[in-house]
Each structure stands twice: as C-alpha cells, then as structure tokens.
Specification:
There is one protein chain. This protein has 303 residues and is α+β, with helices and mostly antiparallel strands. It has one domain: Endonuclease/exonuclease/phosphatase (Deoxyribonuclease I, Chain A). Helix content is 13%, strand content 30%. Strands 4-7-3-2-17-16 form a 6-stranded mixed beta sheet. A 6-stranded mixed beta sheet has the order 8-10-11-13-15-14, covered by helices on one side. It starts with a strand and ends with a strand.
C-alpha cells in the first residue's frame, strides 16, 4: 500500500550519488557498520567447498550522466567483473546501473558458460510515455538491471511491484540458475521523491514486500535497495517487512537481532543487501575501484 510521507526537499538525482541524495534527513547518522566474523579478504575460487556458491550484488555506476563520470569506463567495469568471478569465485551477479554493452562484453570475456538477462530502466513522462534510459557512452545501449551467471538462466520473470507513475522506473527480476540449484532475484528500489507527480509517496515498502514475496527457501535476493538498515533512529525503518532479517538473513547479519552491516557505498552507508534462508558461510565487501558502490559477496551452501 502506498503511504504518504512528509514532502521531500529539492530534486533527486536518478544516480543518487551523494549522501544527501541517498536517504531522507535524519537517518544518515544511523548507518553504523556492524562487525562480523565473515572473512573480509579476497578468497579465490578454489576456496569454495562442494555445494557452495558465491553470489554478488553490485551497482556498477555505469550511467555516466548519473554522476558516474569519475568511476571509470566500461572496460574498467568489465575487468572488475572478471576479477570478482576469476579471483573471488563469484558465480552469480545481481547488477544495477549496468549498460547493456558492458553486460555483453563481460559475458563474452567470461566465457560461453555465462548467461545473462537484462531489464532496461524506463523513464515515464507526465503523459505516461515511456522511454528507455540510455547510457551516454557510444555503443553502450540502454541502462538497467541484470542477472549474470555461470549457468543457463530459466524461469526469468519480472516481479510486479508499485512503481512511480511518472519519473524513473527501476524494477525487480528473478531467474533460476539450475547449475547452482539456486533462484535469484535482483532489485533496484525507488528513491523517496522518485515520482514528480506524487513527491511525498513512498514506494519502497511495497517494493520490498514484492521482492520478499518472490523468494522461497532456495532464493538469494537483494540488490541496491536504496534504504538504510532498520533501527530505532531510522525514521524510514517502517518500510522493512517483518520477514527481512528474520525469515531471511542478510549477508552481513552478525546475529538474529542484528540489523546493521558494513558500508556498501564509498560515502560510508549501507544500501546494498543480499538475503537468503539458505545457510550462510561467508560475506565480504569488495571495493572494485570502478563504482561508488562496493560489491557485496555472499557465500552460501546450496548442496
């Protein structure tokens, strides 16, 4: 159900690069990273035990016009994906702000056993006309969210969720990676103030409900949720449905009562998450040097 919030001040950038654009006032100070016992160093693919898989979520900051011009070109971002796969053993990626051209290049470089699915961002005007968001660099095509995996992808679905009537629509997609006996769902949630027709409306609560509703006991889901972890001081903490952090645990969740995690943004905030009901065996955060978001890598047992 859409809920009205107090009016937000000032325009919001779709790229949401600065801290003051990330979250409503009053919750920026509550994002204190919690320490956990998961390994923080890079672990090679050889460290994976039988029946384990590593899943990463990474906002690639590939849309240069969204204040991403200082995060490197497409080839730099593709090399970062190669390193995460080749050195860190990631076998499934949930990607946001990825250019279709970079996705195709990464898939080609990683090899023929890698597959992907992609959904473009759409900007709707006041007359409900939709236009796909294009990456600024020549030949990069449209921008959107993607799932990239070392497995054929089946049962690819777009998850219905409340979206702004005007402005930027991001989305949620799910797919099954049969080789890894795993279903994954990738989400990029709407920022507060995303709908110029209704600037006080909050969409994230409905979108989180839809995301969790698409998951079962063998799903890893998350992405760039554009939200701080719930806490007593977070005035937007009410957006989180009850099943998060309880039925499904977060990659960096240190205990059943923990709601924090390490920063996933260069600004020191956590907005990127991976949830699952499967056994978690590790969680790490990687500065790729090619985005203002860090890659969050979950190690989980699927066998």
């Amino acid at each position: 159900m859409l809920r009205r919030t107090r009016p937000l001040r000032g325009p919001r950038s779709p790229g949401r690069r600065r801290a003051r654009q990330l979250l409503p006032a009053g919750i920026l100070a509550v994002l204190v990273a919690a320490s956990v016992s998961w390994p923080t160093t890079r672990e090679g693919a050889a460290a994976l035990a039988p029946g384990e898989v590593r899943v990463a979520t990474w906002n690639m900051c590939g849309v240069r016009q969204w204040n991403c011009q200082d995060t490197g070109d497409g080839s730099r971002k593709v090399r970062a994906l190669e390193r995460l796969a080749g050195v860190d053993g990631v076998r499934v990626f949930l990607l946001q702000e990825v250019c279709a051209g970079d996705l195709a290049a990464a898939r080609s470089r990683l090899g023929s056993n890698w597959h992907s699915t992609f959904t473009a961002y759409v900007h709707r005007d006041a007359h409900n006309r939709g236009t796909a968001v294009r990456c600024a660099a020549h030949g990069q095509g449209t921008a959107g969210i993607a799932i990239l995996a070392s497995s054929p992808l089946s049962r690819v679905t777009a998850v219905p969720a409340q979206q702004p009537s005007a402005g930027l629509r991001r989305g949620i997609i799910c797919a099954t990676a049969a080789v890894h006996r795993l279903r994954v769902c990738n989400a990029h949630l709407s920022l507060p103030g995303s709908d110029p027709a209704h600037p006080g409306w909050e969409f994230r609560d409905d979108q989180l409900e839809s995301l969790m509703g698409a998951a079962d006991g063998r799903t890893v889901f998350g992405g760039d949720l554009n939200s701080a972890p719930p806490s007593a001081r977070n005035r937007s903490g009410w957006i989180w449905p009850r099943g998060f952090f309880r039925r499904f645990q977060e990659c960096d969740q240190a205990s059943p009562s923990s709601r924090g995690g390490r920063a996933t943004l260069a600004s020191g905030h956590k907005v990127d998450y991976l949830f699952t009901a499967l056994p978690r065996t590790g969680c790490s955060v990687h500065d790729t040097g090619a985005s203002d978001h860090y890659a969050l890598v979950l190690r989980t047992k699927t066998g």
